[in-house]
Design goal:
The chain is globular. Strands 1, 2, 3, 4, 5, 6, 7 and 8 form an eight-stranded antiparallel beta sheet that branches. The chain has four helices and eight strands; from the N terminus they run ααβββββααβββ. By secondary structure, the protein is of the alpha+beta class. β1 and β2 form a beta hairpin. The two termini are about 30 Å apart.
Length: about 220
């Protein structure tokens, strides 16, 4: 990974903005996961915005809990949650402290560290499938609850960081309903993706849970 203008870390002011500004602006940015085995760099191609107490689809809609506490803290931190009893999802907290909102990182293109990503995602048929969906993204990067609360603005030694990358042009960015969100938040066009990117995950509408199901929707 060479140095250059596109490798400059984003500072906290980038995240200290309304979630609907931050979410589309993350497209084309580079997420870096640093591990003892070496780094993995991923270009973000798909995200979803969740607006806290103003958003029925958000984990923070009903207030603070032990699970979502990071969302109520300062911007520029990772919120990692466990879902469906088997998967982790990675989000970035944004907006002012005390006003919880976050961006779910749904998909990306691996730029560096393909070997390490394939080791974690052996069923991926090609590079485009390594991080095609939020659970796959977290798995490929080795993200779990141990990274909940990580400061992505902490510098080059932090386990997670966001670099400037090459932001997507406005004409490349599409939006639509969020995947798997039902109820009052079902129609919010707060999913953003780069048009034509093969790593973008397919849209799936919300499916009502069966009475005996314990599954939880993916979202923040």
């Amino acid at each position: 990974m060479t140095a250059g203008p596109d490798r400059k870390p984003l500072d906290r002011s980038f995240f200290d903005r309304p979630v609907l500004e931050v979410a589309p602006d993350l497209l084309g940015r580079v997420l870096v996961r640093r591990t003892p085995d070496g780094p993995i760099a991923l270009r973000l191609t798909e995200v979803e915005a969740y607006a806290g107490p103003a958003d029925p689809g958000s984990h923070a809609y009903r207030g603070r809990t032990e699970r979502n506490a990071v969302m109520f803290g300062p911007p520029g931190h990772a919120y990692v949650y466990f879902t469906y009893g088997m998967w982790h999802c990675l989000n970035l907290v944004c907006g002012p402290e005390g006003h919880p909102s976050g961006v779910l990182l749904r998909a990306g293109e691996v730029l560096h560290g393909h070997e390490r990503a394939h080791e974690r995602r052996p069923k991926a048929r090609n590079d485009h499938e390594l991080a095609k969906g939020p659970a796959r993204l977290a798995t490929a990067l080795g993200v779990d609850r141990r990274l909940d609360g990580s400061d992505v603005c902490a510098g080059p030694d932090a386990p997670l960081g966001i670099l400037t990358g090459h932001p997507a042009r406005p004409d490349q960015v599409l939006s639509g309903p969020r995947t798997g969100v039902g109820g009052e938040g079902a129609t919010h066009p707060w999913r953003f993706w780069i048009d034509g990117e093969p790593s973008v995950s397919p849209y799936r509408a919300h499916t009502p849970r069966r009475r005996n199901s314990t599954r939880r929707q993916i979202g923040t």
